[in-house]
Every structure is written in C-alpha cells, then in structure tokens.
Amino acid sequence: MAKPKVFVSRVIPEEGLARVREATDATVWEDELPPPRDQLLSAIAGCDGVLTLLTDRVDDEFLDRAGPQLKVVSNFAVGFDNVDVAACTRRGVPVGNTPGVLTETTADLAWALLMAAARRLVEGDRYVRDGKWKTWGPMLLMGPDVHGATIGIVGFGRIGQAVARRAKGFGMRIVYHDLQRVPKAVEAEFDATFMTLEGLLAESDFVSLHTVLSPETKGLINAERLGWMKPTAVLVNTSRGPVVDSVALVDALRNGTIAAAALDVTDPEPLPADHPLVALDNCLVVPHIASASRATRGKMAAMAAANLLAGLRGERLPTPVNPEVYG
Ligand code: GLV
C-alpha cells in the first residue's frame, strides 16, 4: 500500500523527523527560511497530512489547496494562533500541538530574560567588548533587585505557573491575572494573589506575559496599560509578539514610562535590525527561542510526529487542540 503523502514545512529534530520519514512519503522543506506562501500551497496539494510551524498560516486557502483528503494538521508548537482551528474543525481536520514538554524550558528563558534585563547583562557585556571597562564603578550599570520584588504574571496557565515557581525561589511576591482565578490550591502552592490587570500592572516590578494570542489579547499591553506600570518596571514577553503594541512599547521605553523590556517574541516577527526597539539599550530581544533547548525541541518533534501519524491512521491525536472534531 502506498505510504501517505506528507509535507513537513521545515527540518525538525530527528526524534520526530525520522519517524515521519519512515512511516510516510514525506517531502521536507530543507531551507532555513520557511517556504514562501505560493510554494507552501503547491507543496501541500494532495497531502494526507502536514506538519506545520508557527511561521505557516493554516487557513481556508491552505485547506482548499491541500484538498479534502487532508487528515491532519500537526503544528510543531504549543501555540496555534497561526492555525484557523475553526476552519479545520468545519472540515473535520484534527489539529495537534505540543503542550507540556516545553513548559519548563520556556519558563527558564522567561527567567533568563527577566534576570538579564534587571541586571543589565547585555549592556554590561557590550560595555566590556567596547573597551569601556576602565575601573570598578560604584554607580555602574545599576538595576533593580529581583529577589524580594513583586512579579505580575499575566496568563497563569502551565508556563505562567512554572515562572511563579522560579519566582518563589527568589522570595518574590507573586500576583497574577487571568480570565478567571485558578483553584485555591494552586494559588496556595505559589502564594499567588489574583489581581485585576490594572492592579497587577500598577504594583508589579516585573510583568511577565504568558497569555495565548487571541482577538482579546491582541494589543493587550497598549499605551494606556504601559502607563499603569511603574517607571522602574521591567516587561518580559515570551508569549506572542502582538500581545504588546510595539509602537507604544517603543514610546514607553524611550520616555521612561517603564524601565526596560525583554522580548522573546515581537511584532513584527522577525524584528528587522533597523526596528526602533533594536536601537534601545533598555530593550533586550532574542529571536523567539524560548523552547530552544535540545531536549525540548526533540520532545516537541516526537510529539508533533505522534500527532501526525495518529491522524494519518485515523486515530485520535494524542494532543488535539480541537477535540470537538471527534464529535
Ligand atoms: C512557541 O512559541 C510555541 O508556541 O511553541
């Protein structure tokens, strides 16, 4: 029997890719850059399954071009804002993501960003490399303490809670905001206090974003809300770039509305090197690498492969984002 036809939109770790190659007739996009839209649409035509990345838009046009035989969309990410899930559900196509395996790794990176921005590590490194380090300076590169400070966590799901666990180790006061309160036992575990977004922004020394990107959270951190923050506050974003209004953030960092930002995700993404955010010393940017530990990317690949292969066999995906597709 012919193997199912599959398109994999980038090279992913062998932990998943080897299984996909073995079990399917796979075409893998080998370039470092994602397939341009027209090439993506040609490559998926007639496929039984697709393994996509967050750089691929899966919408009605994509699904039309793939064709009615498409059995599964497996997204190599926990986030799936690149996928029109409702469109997939309407066509009976299950969508998989990679939750759980990247929680701690993402929280590690959020923590690294928070520490680096607070203690001005990138500025310090640049200072040394630029040959400016002439003596020990009593006023040199001062920043806020992390230990004992207040952290406001916006989005208190798996990753937000993993950040809270780290914050607890630093003796921080933990406040959070989400659409609804988490169970009392979870609040007790982290000594976390629910607050309105306004209250959280006003009281936090560090604000770390862990929401999904949805119409409700797009532009959540806008000029008005940045204005609610302390002038000494540090904003950390490892969620999705458009949760923060970039233009407002540039203004806030320039005008001293807040002290600093540390971003793993940006809007636009990738952030051009001549973007105003890149020119600011009080803004640290890394290229969307929160889940990029070798072990975690391997686990994500294995999980994405498992979702893809289950979908091709007509079985329930291990981690579907639209379980309603199964009626
Ligand atoms: C990365 O951003 C992911 O959603 O996995």
Q: Summarize this, please?
A:
With 327 residues, the protein is an alpha/beta fold.
- Gyration radius from CA atoms, angstroms: 21 Å
N-to-C SSE string, H for helix and E for strand: EHEHEHEHEHHEHEHEHEHEHEEH
CATH topology of the largest domain: Rossmann fold
β-strand percent reads 5-15%
| Major sheet strand order | 8-7-6-9-10-11-12
- The residue-averaged pLDDT reads 98
Tally the helices.
12
Uncertain residue ranges: none
Shape: globular
List the bound ligands: glyoxylic acid
**For the terminal residues, how far apart are their CA atoms?**
29 Å
Number of E strands: 12
CATH superfamily of the largest domain: NAD(P)-binding Rossmann-like Domain
**Shape-level CATH architecture of the largest domain:** 3-Layer(aba) Sandwich
CATH top level assignment of the largest domain: Alpha Beta
Number of domains: 2
Q: Structural class of the helices, strands and pairings?
A: alpha/beta
Helical content stands at: 25-40%
Largest sheet: number of strands, sense, barrel closure: 7 strands, parallel
Question: Can you tell me about this structure?
Answer:
The protein is of the alpha/beta class and 327 residues long. It folds into two domains: 130 residues, Rossmann fold (3-Layer(aba) Sandwich); 183 residues, Rossmann fold. The protein is 36% helix and 14% strand. The strands form two sheets. Strands 8-7-6-9-10-11-12 form a seven-stranded parallel β-sheet, sandwiched between helices. Helix 1 packs parallel to helix 12 and helix 2 packs across helix 3. It is globular. The two termini are 29 Å apart. The model has no long low-confidence stretch (mean pLDDT 98). Bound molecules: glyoxylic acid.
